[in-house]
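Notes from the pairing session

We agreed to fold both candidates in a single pass and log them together. This is the raw record for the first candidate, unedited. Please don't reformat it; downstream parsing expects exactly this layout.

Candidate A
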Amino acid sequence: MGYEPSDDRNASPWLIENLNPSRYQTWTWMNLKRYESQFTTEEWVDLLMQTLGLNPEEFTFRSKTDPVGEVDPVLRETIIT
């Protein structure tokens, strides 16, 4: 996303600078549970960020806990401790 102010009231100041298509497979929580031990905490947080439509590379680990914590406050406490 980008922002470019304009004097034109009919123009939107928001620009889409980059759009990457996503492909999702059908996964169940049972499938994820099977692979849980193979992921680090940071990898799990990155996965959650991506499911929220956010690019985890744009955030520090600490700032990733804010959007994830909004989805599940209990999960946030688990990640921080």
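Candidate B (folded immediately after A)
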Amino acid sequence: MNESTNSPDNKVVFFNPYEFEGEVYTQIDLQGMYDLNAKDLTEIENIYVARGGNAALAGLTLDYAIIIANRVTKKPLEFFDNLSAKDAIALKNNVMRFFYD
């Protein structure tokens, strides 16, 4: 088993290989976060709120991190639904660290 990690280049390496729609993934690349702008963040926040999220907590939640990852990886939101808990938290931590470090 590997350990789920966050690398400095904004890749989340999965604890175990992850299968989605017949393709196996060992990591996702969140490097696209560098290309986001204020308009993107507003759109992401609107999606988050439409899904029932509280705007005041947006940057702190797993759902918000998933929507960010959806935007920058071009993977459907459903891609993230069955990530292991460990990988989901690694994803959230990577996104939070990007914006708050």
